[in-house]
Amino acid sequence: MGGGTGGIILANELRMKLSGENKIILVERNYEHAFAPSFLWLMTGDRSPEKITKPLHRLIRPGVELLHAEVTHIDISNRCVTTSKEDISFDYLVIALGAKLAPDLVPGLSDAAYSFYDFHETKKLRKALDEFNSGKIAVVVSSLPYKCPGAPHEAAMLIADYFRRRGIRLKVDIHLYTPEPQPMPVAGPKLGEAVTQMLQSKGNSFYQTI
Predict the structure, then answer these.
(1) In angstroms, rounded to a whole number, what is the distance separating the alpha carbons of residues 49 and 55?
(2) What is the tens place of the pLDDT at every residue in 139-157?
(3) Non-local CB neighbours of 90 within 8 Å, separated by 6+ positions
């Protein structure tokens, strides 16, 4: 279940390693796969939507069955998955559905902010940056843990370079807010300090929030 990067790779690997007698079904609700590591470059216009998306059926190996459907229920006892199109019985089940963003849990957030963790939201952010000519931009890590530890720091630096290319960097203040004691603590203190210096070299401000 789940046709993201993990689900696609695993389905393809299983197809290579298992005999044709073994049936492999990949369940995914989307028809296209968007490559998430390129979302930040889409944000700054260094990638186009067409360059980072591909029909899902073109990414899976022959012999992997693709079902475009929504997973609605998992019955472990009876080894059955209910989808919006049909029920699927299984011998082994892999759950690779990923994390679902839920901005509506914070009242007003969807109308006041953008996310570069979502393909469609990133396209909106791209348009917003194009129309932004002066003022303050806040890149916010609201809580820990969060998806992809390096993304907010890279985003702040890419945004700074984007406005520098437009010739209006001095008109834009970019601030990174995070509850981390330093950037990317999962990478260790030395790399965290290096990231802090890189942020500051771009003219970005780093704040630790509590």
Answers:
(1) 12
(2) 998 888 888 888 999 999 9
(3) 25, 79, 80, 81
